[in-house]
Amino acid sequence: MRSHRTILCYHNASYSSPGKKARVKIDDKLNRAGWYVVDRGEYVTQTTSAIREALAQGNKESDYLLFIDNKAIPVLEAKRADNPLGEDVESQAENYARTPLSWYGLWENGFIPLVYMSNGEKILFKNLLSGDEDYVEIDTFHTPKEMLRLIKHSSEYGALPKLEKQSLRDCQYNAEINFEKSIKNGKKKNLAVLATLREILGGISL
User: Fold this and answer.
1) How far apart, in whole angstroms, are the C-alpha atoms of residue 64 and residue 86?
2) What is the DSSP letter of 111?
3) Residue 58: what pLDDT?
4) Does residue 124 sit in helix, strand or coil?
5) C-alpha dihedral sign at 199, 45, 156, 148
6) Residue spans of the chain under pLDDT 50
7) What is the bridge-based pairing of β-strands 36-38 and 49-56?
């Protein structure tokens, strides 16, 4: 992460391990929920990003760490399809959530509030703020806005949904990305322009 120095280093080779098929499915589900899935060296500040192999305490790595407004909101522990996501995985994931590195931006004081576990087929979820001990199974990952609601926080622009390139030309896609960046950096006068641009581009036939 550019704003937090050593969070982002080099992509770990474990992504090509036997759990790769599960990771591909997890990446797809995160994308569908509105998250940019990136390697550690690809993170761009002020985006709703899921960072693969994010650094954790003790030179360990959380499989995914998701950020809104440059602040970590959930930990996601990924396992192979044949892993039942038992207590050992729960313990691992919650340890990452409760002992974040000191330079992470955080939504809650001293810990990351949401925990997910997935083997590519099943997703288990727990909100550490709720007091519930049990994980619940969910069909899809929560969107950025849904996660903010779960922890009773809000973000003026930080939870804008992931922009899909689809049929947009490169110049059109890059223009909208740049508009979003300027809005998130406090240039509010561009908000109406962004809304108009999305409406116009949505109706263009290329």
Assistant:
1) 18
2) B
3) 83
4) strand
5) positive
6) 1-15, 203-206
7) parallel
